[in-house]
Design a protein that fits this description.
Radius of gyration of chain B: 19 Å
Helix content of chain A: over 70%
Order of helices and strands of chain A: HHHHEEHHHHHHH
Chains: A mainly alpha (295), B mainly alpha (291), C alpha/beta (256)
Strand order of the largest sheet of chain A: 1-2
Mean pLDDT of chain A: 87
Number of domains of chain B: 2
Oligomer: heterotrimer
Number of strands of chain B: 4
Distance between the termini of chain B: 46 Å
Distance between the termini of chain A: 55 Å
Structural class of chain A: mainly alpha
Low-confidence stretches of chain B: none
Number of helices of chain A: 11
Shape of chain A: globular
Strand order of the largest sheet of chain B: 1-4
Largest sheet of chain B: 2 strands, antiparallel
Amino acid sequence: MNDLLAQLIWNGLVAGSLLALVSLGLTLIYGIAGFVQFAHGELVALGAYGMLIFHKFLGWEIFPAGVASVACVIFFGIFLEKILFRPVRKKNPLVPLVISIGLSILLQSLILIFFGPQIQTISDRHFESFSVAGKFLATPNQLCAVVAAVILTAGLIFFLKKTRRGQSLRAVSDNRNLAQIFGVNIDSAMRWIFGVSAGLAAVAGIFLGFERNLEPMMGVQISITAFAAVILGSLGSVRGAIFGALTIGFAENLLVGFGVIPSGFSSAIPFLVLIGILLVRPTGFFGKSSQFLRE
Amino acid sequence: MIEYFFSLATIALIWTIVAQSYNLSFGLAGLFNLGHVIFFGIGAYAAAILNTRFGFNFLENLGLAALISGTVASGFGILTLRLRGHYLAIATLGAAMIAQVVALNWLELTRGPLGIRGIDEPQIFGEIFVGDTLPHFLLYFGIAATLLFFLWKLFQSPWGRLLRAIRDDELAAIAVGKNIFAAKLWALVLSAALAGVAGAMYAHYRVFLDPSIFALSEIILLILIVVIGGRGNFWGNVASAFLIVGVLSELPRFLNFPETLLGAARNIVYAGLLIATMFWRPRGIFCRRKK
Amino acid sequence: MSDFLKISRLRKKFDGVHAVENLNFEVRKNSITGLIGPNGAGKTTVFNLITRFLKSDSGEIFFRGETLKNLPPRKIVDLGIARTFQQIRLWKNLTVRENLLLACSKKYDRWWDCFRRRNEADAERKIDEILEKFGITNLKKMHASDLSYGQSKLVELARTILTDAEILLLDEPAAGINPTLLKTIEKIIFDLKKSGKTLLVIEHNMPFLMKISDEIVAIDGGKFLCQGAPAVVQKNPKLLAAYLGDAREILKSEKC
């Protein structure tokens, strides 16, 4: 295999894996709460900035700092659900949507004020990249990212399919009223979903932080890329989110790597994919095509 | 001191036009367009480029900006108007990001982050209107009043009534034979054209333009104005635009936030207010009807 | 004229289930035809297909000999076919007057008409007439969100009539209605027939439907079951068998 191709595939895999973690959370929230959480990218950013606090500013070791950061974001996610989204749960889905847009801007601005507009690095240590099978370069961070993504995704799927709690969440996603009749506690289901999504987002944020460095606006870019992935894979579908994320991860890297798209415009690729999908097949590849009116 | 007042008032006028145009597409017609700022930005850049490179003057630019923004909106609308709710929101957000990326990277057209300098101040029949003076303010006030009058007529018209019906229940509108696609498309095009004119006014006022005009956070100001003023409520939006842009936006300045953080502080105020409004008064402060 | 509204070999599938399958029937001009069948039989789907809110997979619908294929839903209304909905669809943020005005004409629907001098006296007159006929003149300035269920039903019916359509598809006009209001609706329907309109009515209220209909079409599982005069159809063994599977229907018809 061509060395350049191998490198691009690896880069695509890394990008896709991390994007998958973010997209899974987003699609789960849509499936269960019925709206697209616009501030989800900010939770990713908070994971990264949390790492900045614990590891860089407080000097903790990487692993404990990571755990602390993820824990904080999980609690924050659950907090948001309780304070912002639960009270409006019964209203028209545009309401939580608009609230999440406001939340996104709010968090971005807060990050900007507290951490400053400059680009920051999560760690002053320099990680050597190493050669894999003599074909391409990888960093330890990238390797851990992919491994973590695989483990967490597998864990999530196992959780949703095999555990009682997971199955009750799927029931809520399928038919909320019916699930309630069968005794599923909706409040608790929401808490779980927001908590899990936040956790996945934070993990992705930490690895992204090592990979790319932090800046206050990083959340928006990630959000939109995740939207593209989730819509590509159909809102609400777990498999779809994984498919969509990997597709976009590979597309971003391969298209730029082979010069199809100039690198300055690389950030536009997910948006183009997004718009393309919405024009051609808005319900994505893993969902049913929509009907106008039903009996 | 007086310049500060004129400066604030001019910006408030421009934003009132943009907000009311958004009230037309988002408020009245219910099109959840998160990318409305694109049309404002396109109008501004069109004016800037046409003026600095081709010598078009202020009045010509107002017309051309409307035309260009409107045309872009028509293409955009034809492609996206069959999307609903979340999907439309996301599509328009994506479009907004693309606009930002293009503005930053298409150097031959926009000069990227360097921006465009030296835009002429408004010149009509040989008279130059210098910014932050009374004549300039009166000129802008006159233009704004004309545009707002046009918008007011639209809101009062049967077409406006049709848009409200479409926003409420599209299927019912189809069931009485209405052409909802045409109505929505025109709503989008007109609102974009007006935003474009406001953009041209902005370019000729600021005489300098850079891609920050496409910043995503600006849409939150628009959503806020329309939500608080009441969707489709003309006078409510005039009031809320004045209050928010004229008064509220200056709050961080009076609280002595450093200049670099002013934008972020403003956004926090807007975002916080938006969230609060969605909680307690999602129909706007000025609504008369309670469910 | 037997070729007024003709459903021919209509077929529609939803996610693998045949909602309508090889359906054939006709509606005679100036008749009141009832459309019945157990829940899920496909009745509202038929309405959706006729009005082109849904596109059929195959088969055709003819109105006055012309096929309705490929027409957008709003053109169907122009041609003269209008419908009501199972869940009432009024514009809650508009007044009753505005709800009705929108159905009256399309004369000023374009945005540039905002500059024209408008004469809506004709429409206002028609609205006042129909409100009076229905006995709900007092509701004219009220917002649709403030109406009771029965009042909303009347307004939606009025709105549909104001489109000036020749054929009215009524989706469960008697559902949830008290007996007094039912009498009013009955009279309205008979008046419509007298003025030359044709009606196709979905209903579960059997006594009511049998009383007003000239003819009944019964379907089940998306397939045609039988068609004929009410007295005849009522006794059709296939129909009874279909309904026996849906005990609620039997109970309802026994109550009235």
